[in-house]
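Practice problem: CAAX amino terminal protease self-immunity
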Amino acid sequence: MEQDSDRNSFLAMAALFEGGLVVVALALGWVFGVPPLESLVWDPWAVLWGLVGVVPLYAGFIIFDRYPVGPLRTIKETLNDLLGPIFARCSKADLAVVAILAGVGEEVLFRGLLLPLTGGGSFVIGLLISSLLFGLAHAVTTTYVILAAVAGLFFGLQWHYTGNLLAPIISHAVYDYLAFVKIARDFRASPLELPPQILDGDSYED
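Answer key — structure tokens:
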């Protein structure tokens, strides 16, 4: 079935891309002597701070989504057009897997490797450069680059003050999951945009 094929292709691409970020981070870390997983350890407090960090991130997402003025409307429409169709074909479990992959892959690369590597011993410089690169990696629109860079600053500060990469990974993954689910629900709630098979009930809500 074409719908299943598109969904499976998307999940495979997400796994390859986000997993590839970890491989790249490990390879570059070996070359430059910056082990990106060095600060990743299990710690209940890091888990707690990661979950707490989701609150301001998702609150900002909801506010921007509910009041999409100016360039925020462009972001909302672009994300709906780009991600809505494929997210609507995915189950919540699918979206959770993609969110976890994104949280791990992107945090290992940008906070685990690039932040200490680009700082040259200065946390502030590394934070600014890695956050800018993080924003540029999310070049959906100019405003989205700025918002992503701000999120990068947030994740970098989490990593710095907890001393544990687990905190930003959890914040990033949980936030992504909640955002993905909302994008999928919003798309499903727009019947004119849905393909016939989803309108007929052949979707992956659970």
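Discussion: The chain has eight helices and no strands. Students who identified this feature from the tokens alone can consider the problem solved.
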